[in-house]
Structures are given as C-alpha cells and as structure tokens.
Specification:
By secondary structure, the protein is mainly alpha-helical. It contains nine helices and four strands, in the order ββαββαααααααα. The protein has two domains: 55 residues, Dna Ligase, domain 1 (2-Layer Sandwich), CATH 3.30.1490.40; 212 residues, no CATH class. The longest helix has 32 residues. A four-stranded antiparallel sheet has the order 2-1-3-4. α2 crosses α9 and α8 packs antiparallel against α9.
Length: 297
C-alpha cells in the first residue's frame, strides 16, 4: 500500500511505501500531525491516527500494579470516548492559555463576516458561501495551538488556501442549508396564515425534525474538512459516523454550547467575543476526541 503526505508547504509528496514514510518521520520531514492519505483515496488523516504507523508513537506504559483486562469474549466493550465533562474540561484548560488569541480571531472573522453583507445584491450569497471557509480557518488555528504548534499570520485565514477553499465552501453550504430550510418551513405558516390556517401552524414544528436531524448529524463536517483535509462529501459521511450512535447526547451538547455562546450578549454584547470562541473550541475538541477514538486500532 502506498501513501501520499501533505507537506508544510501545501504540496503533496508521494506516492511512497510505508517504509519511506517512516524514514521521513525519522529524518524530521514528517511529524505526528503531518496529514497522510492512502494513494488514490484523498482522505487525509494525521499520521498519529493511522494504525499502520502506531509504532512510531508508543503509548505510555501503564502504572505499576495495573492489571490488564483479558481479551476475548469476556472482555468489556471499550467505553464511549465522548464525555461532555471531559470535553469541556479540556477546552477550559486550553482556553485559559489562549483566550486572547481566540478572542482576536473571533473579532477578525466577525468583522469580515459583517463586511460580506455590504455588497448590494449579495447579502445572502456571500455569507452562505464563505461561512464554512471562515469557520474552517478558525479550526485550523485552534487545532495547531492544541498541538502546541506556532501560529503564523497565514494560518488565521487558512480556510482561503486553495487546498481547502472549495471543499469548505461546499461543506458550509450543505451544512447551513438544512438550518435555513427548517427555519423557513417553520415560519412560513405564520406569515401565510390565510393559506395554511391553524393546522399549518400546528404542523410547522414537524418541518424542523428532518432539518434538525441532518444539522446535528453533519455538525463536525467543517472541522473535519479543515483539519483532516477531507473533501466535503467524505467530511459529511465521517461526521455522520461520529454522531449517529450518540445523536441525542451531541444534540444536548450543542444546546449547551449554543446557550453558552449566546450568553455573552448579556455582557454588553462584547462578551460574545469570549463565550462564542469557547463554544466553537469545545465543538472542535469534541470532534478531535471522537475522530481520534474512531481511528484508533
């Protein structure tokens, strides 16, 4: 099996055999966060998440006196890796060190997003097209800082890089459309009461169900496309795999993050620059936790 790696300059190197990838790692040309893909699949994953190269990153030895559970039919199934308390705790630990950088990035992206509404005739198209691009840039910066890597100026607008731009635009549109469509279908009977009547108003919440289901199912699409360099469709499929067995817990988690992000409005609006980045970082932390657990051998 041959592999292709993505260099720090954005260029692809390969295809090469696994032995060559190991040699590059030993020479320092690749590290744990270097993105790698099986040749021809275009599914990018950090090197440390690929089972074939797990020996390059040995796990720490268990504490003295720890007895391993026996393998086989009697072994307990692995616990679910998604724990809301653990995700929020890890996010808070990171946020305390990086709050000023996250607030500055949120201010930059918010200002840019507001400017997108100014061109006449494009008030809806531009924000819808570029929302995923800007969110992807945020994810790239935060992930690099999570792994202790320095952030350069170009990383702040990483979503606009040619290797990510189109896929993030597509991902942003497809993950935003269900929300917009659900809100439109929900509000329509209220604005056209003479046409739909009372029955239409009572049935309006039903229009939200499929839209809400898809929105939660695809919630990790943009982080996956941005940080793992997947194409939009693969990102949507991977997000669905990560969410489907724990849909209700992810939904509750998103409600909590939404309430937390909006709570900054009560602090003279400027608080949003602090609460919204925390909520977005927690979402990325959850995505990283689940994606890493899924790719573990």
């Amino acid at each position: 099996m041959n592999y292709v790696i993505l260099g720090g300059d954005g260029k692809q190197y390969g295809p090469v055999a696994a032995e060559q990838v190991r040699a590059w790692f030993q020479d320092g040309r690749a590290d744990a966060d270097t993105h790698i893909s099986v040749h021809g699949r275009n599914a990018w994953t950090p090197l440390h998440d690929v089972p074939e190269f797990a020996d390059l990153f040995p796990a720490p030895a268990p504490p003295s006196g720890t007895v391993s559970a026996p393998a086989g039919a009697g072994a307990a199934p692995p616990p679910d890796s998604f724990r809301v308390g653990q995700v929020l705790g890890a996010t808070w630990k990171f946020y305390r060190q990086e709050w000023w950088r996250l607030a500055a990035l949120a201010l930059l992206l918010t200002t840019f997003f507001i400017l997108l509404f100014l061109p006449p005739g494009l008030n809806f198209i531009l924000p819808l097209s570029l929302a995923g691009v800007m969110a992807g840039g945020f994810c790239v910066v935060v992930q690099k800082r999570m792994h202790g890597k320095p952030v350069r100026l170009r990383d702040w607008l990483a979503g606009f890089h040619k290797s990510r731009l189109i896929q993030l635009m597509v991902a942003g549109i497809f993950t935003t459309v269900p929300v917009c469509l659900g809100l439109i279908l929900f509000a329509l009977p209220f604005f056209l009461f003479d046409l739909f009547g009372l029955l239409g108003i009572l049935a309006a919440p039903l229009a939200l169900v499929p839209c809400l289901f898809l929105s939660v199912l695809w919630v990790f699409t943009i982080p996956l496309v941005a940080t793992r360099r997947l194409d939009a469709w693969d990102g949507m499929r991977m997000s669905a795999r990560l969410v489907h067995r724990r849909w209700w817990r992810i939904f509750g988690f998103l409600l909590l993050l939404g309430a937390l992000g909006l709570s900054g409005i009560f602090l003279a609006f400027i608080g949003v620059l602090f609460t919204a980045p925390f909520a977005a970082t927690a979402l990325l932390q959850a995505c990283e936790t689940l994606a890493t657990a899924e790719s573990a051998p």
